Amino acid sequence: MYYGQIARSLDISPRFAQALATKSYSTHGHRSLRTPSRKHRYAVEEVPAYLPKLWFDAHFGDFLDDMPTDQQPRERALRRAVSLQLAKLATGLAWHRCAETLGLTPKMAAKLLSSLAKRFEPVKLWPEFDRRVDQIADHLDITDERINYASRRRGLAEWRMPSGEWHLLTSGIPRLRRLHEQGDPDIGTALAWAGATQGEPLHSPVIRKAGLEIRDITFLSKEVSVLQRDDMRGARLRLRRRLDAYAAQLARACDHETDLKINIDDILSAADLSVKTPSPRAER
Length: 284
Known about the structure:
Elements: H1 3-7, H2 14-24, H3 53-60, H4 75-91, H5 95-98, H6 106-120, H7 126-142, H8 149-155, H9 163-169, H10 177-182, H11 185-197, H12 205-212, H13 218-227, H14 234-255, H15 264-270
Helix pairs in contact: 4-6, 4-7, 11-13, 11-14, 14-15
């Protein structure tokens, strides 16, 4: 079919182009599809690579209610997809062209789009998906103090958490003796990076590098996955609060272009006071 060629024409209305885009999501030419849209105020650099949990819950909490449970994509995939669509709205480029800007790979974006198309098209969910993403885009447009997530990713691309700081973060918490004695600061590096950049910890530079070094990252990946869950309690919740406070300091240092020095004493005294410690995941 010629949906992609028609949609790339400059002589059609944005509404008609969007209809064609929905029609062509699963066709062979969807990866290069570009659709005209209104100009947005936010820039692609201000799009988080992994939609914050609060944003997702506010706009997509009930999105999958009418979809068969066995066909529903994981929340993680959907949050990644929303970010890619926000990037597309800002640039006019297809998902695979936006991927590298968000620190993802074109192959990952193309695979994600194909997977969602298989699930969404039978139940006609693409228009609703687009409508909800548009709501988030509208919110970004009217937000004056947006965050340059791309700048944070650049600032933390080579950063590693000092082993002494990881030792202090994991100290004094009952039932975390093994994690404390194992002493792998890459766990803290991945999670603090994710909190500061609003990315996925398993896609952090430190874990990607570890994978390229062909080292066993089973324990690392497992602990990172556990510590990013939303249903934690007890010891790991205390550690996660500390990591969230650490990430918030790290984010501020990136934004102000200052040295990436963290006040551990402030984190240890403040993060343990309340479960509701402000987190960089809850930005805006």
